[in-house]
Amino acid sequence: MDNNILEVKGLKKVYKGFTLNNLSFSLEKGYIMGFIGPNGAGKSTTIKLIMNLINRDGGEINVFGLDNIKDERHIKERIGFVYDENHFYDELSIMEMKGIIAPFYKNWNNEHFERYLKDFDLPLRKKIKELSKGMKTKFSLAVALSHDADFIIMDEPTSGLDPVFRSEILDILASFIQDEKKAVLFSTHITTDLEKIADYITFINNGELVFSETKDSILENYALVKGGKELIDESIKRELVGIRENKYGFEAVTSDVKKLRSQFKGDIVIEKPTLEDIMLYTVRGSKNA
Amino acid sequence: MLNLIIKDLLVQKKSFIFAVFYSTFVFFAFNTPVFEQTIYAMGTIAIAYILILTATAMDDKNRSEVILNSLPVKRDSIIIAKYLSIFVYIVAGIAAMMVIGLALKFLGMPINYRLVSMAELVAILMSIGILCSIYFPVYYKFGSANVRIFNIFLFLALFFGPVNIANYMKKNGNNEFITSVLETIRSIPEWMIMSGIVASVLAVMLVSMLISIRIYRKKEF
What we know:
The complex is a heterodimer. Chain A is an alpha/beta fold. In chain A, 34% of the residues lie in helices and 29% in strands. Chain A has helices at residues 43-50, 72-77, 94-101, 110-119, 133-144, 163-176, 191-197, 215-221, 234-237, 257-263, 275-288; strands at residues 4-15, 18-28, 32-36, 58-63, 66-67, 79-82, 151-155, 183-187, 200-205, 208-214, 223-228, 240-245, 249-254, 268-271. Helix content of chain B is 79%, strand content 0%. In chain B, helix 2 (13-29) packs across helix 5 (75-106), helix 3 packs across helix 5 (75-106) and helix 3 (39-61) runs parallel beside helix 6. The chains are: A alpha/beta, B mainly alpha. The interface between A and B is medium-sized, with 31 and 22 residues.
């Protein structure tokens, strides 16, 4: 068996006014993948397709080397999920909700669960609807981590949460993948979180893959470029994405900083980009195209 | 499968308080000779149906089916469990009526306490079975919030429909067709009619379940 925990090949889903088209990427054991893109890019659609909550129109999804539809039950025993909205029965308390979910998993580990509840300071008897957004996410995470899952899928888990708690989640995820048999797919538009912990970044825009690479190679190859307006010509433009021009100069991102360096003899500033820069300029570039 | 049925009971603990109040209400409101033969059926049908509707409403409220479908459970099982739970709710309804009836009797209320009759059991199964056979496929197609009004009409139709048909038959007692139908029915032994009804209702439920499974397999969350 190969090392991939997740393999998405040629995935397609057609909606009115939006198509997720020919999406392919894979995630190996032992790594955390950040899944980024602007709102409406298709992140949640992809996650729903992986979880088989919606029907795909084409392509293939393999989890643990197994087809995600044919072996759905088996796969879901080993997946922990955290979604951005609360879908728990909100009239129930945390303990009651746990009582409903636990029997579905063969490997439910109550000790782990109770340890997480304690670590997360969750009030056992409080109704779910009385919990804050952060607490609901913590509860969701506690459930996801308490049945010996090998793959954690999170759809925007950190949106709307305070920095302290976000950093707590990141620590938990980092320790989760320590044994190198597990993996995490983590969709977000808060890219600074990913700069801390992600090994891979998969970036989609308008339903299409922009890149899926290691974070290090992305940050190595991409660069933020600034310079005087007079420096821009057609050949340079081809190397740049999302050019922003004003009276004095331009700013853009390039995906091949070495090539740009060799071409550009003029006086330009090349800076290390953040993931946010890359996302912003790429999205802008695709809108202008 | 059992987990799913238990889940439906756990999410609506408050409904059981309703069942207690409602059965008490039924014993007082319908404690007249007219309803003597049907009081247990009337109570059970209403309680069972409300519990069934509440269970689906709870699933719908926070789109909790997203969670269910993310757990290691097959979509088909979710539907099969829903249909099996019909019998659980019928038992719960009967239990509520019997226990509350007994309690009221002990408290010295002037009620006519007896066991649920065979005819009532058949009537309960028929009403709830048919209501659910119509309701579930519609719910799975459109969601509970969208079918609330449909539901009220459905319940009223099944609650008052049979009475109106009976009245119609009484008024048109001389009609040849109706007399011949009634004659034929009278000539068949009661057990046979009852088994026939039970078998037909179970068949309708099975067909409805297969339709719901088809709808649910294609459903997107």
